[in-house]
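Many introductory courses stop at the sequence. We go one step further.
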Amino acid sequence: EMGEVNGYIALAAGDQAVPEMLSVMQTLLPAAWYDNGPLFECDESDDIRILASYQGPLKFEGEADSQVAKEWEEHGPKMEGKAAVILCRVGKGAVVLMSPHPELSEGCGKVIPQLAAAVQRWLSDART
């Protein structure tokens, strides 16, 4: 248990990310707000795409000499390369799993609705 761990962290585009969804997420990639989110582990397939992964280090928000900061310095590198945003096809629909918080990331307030619209277009294109 590392306590409250939050701050900004850069994201890297996934190798098989859907281009339209990546364009929607461009404002999020340089600095996404992380706030105790999960670390996803998955293998990509036709139904699972990693849209973005963590590209550290986290810019820790807090007192640099605190116990949490010391633990984060030790355990933070575990985030490097882990999936941060995943697209999963489920039946005729899709789900986007996000570990960072675009709604709390500066300048990224519209990412979630724009990403939802991009997913709908992607699903429509896949059916035609």
